[in-house]
Specification:
single chain; about 120 residues; mainly alpha; 6 helices; about 0% strand
């Protein structure tokens, strides 16, 4: 699979951080909404359910990022592109995906130890 040309290559390069942004917003919006409406919504009645729902959402984002990291590390920059700019794009995509995976791990890490709705 070849990298796209033009401005869309930048979108491919930062796609890991787009997933991180979605994860960050979804986790904190979900936590805020669940804590403010837990008396009304029976699905999020207990703190354990809130943690379980948020943990599942976090795990889905981590799985997507793990797949992106795996696919970006499988790509060979030399055979995939012949230009130096293309090789730079592939290598940059690799490292940005790994950084986004660590950022997502860091954002969701408090879900494991802190109770929701303090």
């Amino acid at each position: 699979m070849k990298l796209p040309h033009g401005p869309s290559v930048l979108l491919v390069m930062v796609s890991g951080f787009i997933v991180w942004t979605i994860s960050f917003a979804a986790l904190y919006a979900g936590l805020s909404l669940a804590c403010s409406h837990r008396a009304v919504l029976p699905l999020v009645h207990s703190p354990m359910r809130i943690s379980l729902l948020l943990g599942t959402l976090w795990a889905i984002h981590l799985a997507v990022l793990a797949l992106m990291v795996y696919l970006s590390w499988r790509r060979d920059p030399v055979s995939d592109t012949s230009s130096g700019a293309g090789q730079f794009a592939v290598r940059t995509m690799r490292y940005l995906n790994v950084a986004a995976a660590f950022a997502t791990l860091w954002v969701g890490f408090p879900l494991l130890f802190l109770p929701p709705c303090l």
